[in-house]
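Query structure, 169 tokens:
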């Protein structure tokens, strides 16, 4: 991304987005997911909207007002935090000064926190990013086991660790 486009993208100073403002190379953010069983296999489910993340396919944003592309003046898009600690805090695993969203989900096997690739139209904001497309990049399980890690790795074709100590690295 050129310096001028990058400055705009970070500050959001332009009124309209142009094709050069659409990311073709992924940006990496952090998220938390519920891990639940579907047809006897673990799947990733969005923390707040219960969206099941597709395996080996991108997740595409959907908004009734703006379609698949996030809009600067709306909270649509696939959300990700800028840091691991923000994602952990949002999920209730660290103290957080912002909005924490501790949420138990019926049938949850464990929690996954990890990095996520974001691309397409991406809107940056104070707390992180909102993207048109996303896919998990790597996952760390909290209260998961080797079996869940192995099954998620096969399903999503990403690295998965069930060792909480690796998350701190």
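Result returned for the query:
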């Amino acid at each position: 991304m050129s310096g001028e486009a990058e400055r705009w993208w970070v500050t959001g100073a332009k009124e309209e987005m142009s094709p050069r403002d659409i990311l073709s190379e992924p940006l990496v953010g952090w998220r938390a997911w519920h891990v639940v069983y579907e047809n006897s296999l673990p799947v990733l489910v969005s923390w707040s909207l219960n969206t099941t993340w597709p395996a080996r396919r991108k997740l595409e944003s959907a908004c009734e007002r703006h379609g698949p592309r996030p809009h600067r003046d709306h909270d649509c898009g696939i959300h990700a935090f800028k840091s691991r600690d923000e994602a952990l805090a949002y999920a209730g695993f660290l103290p957080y000064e912002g909005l924490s969203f501790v949420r138990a989900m019926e049938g949850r096997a464990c929690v996954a926190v990890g990095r996520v690739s974001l691309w397409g139209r991406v809107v940056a904001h104070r707390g992180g990013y909102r993207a048109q497309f996303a896919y998990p990049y790597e996952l760390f399980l909290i209260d998961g086991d080797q079996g869940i890690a192995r099954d998620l790795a096969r399903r999503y074709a990403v690295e998965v660790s069930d060792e909480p100590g690796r998350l701190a690295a």
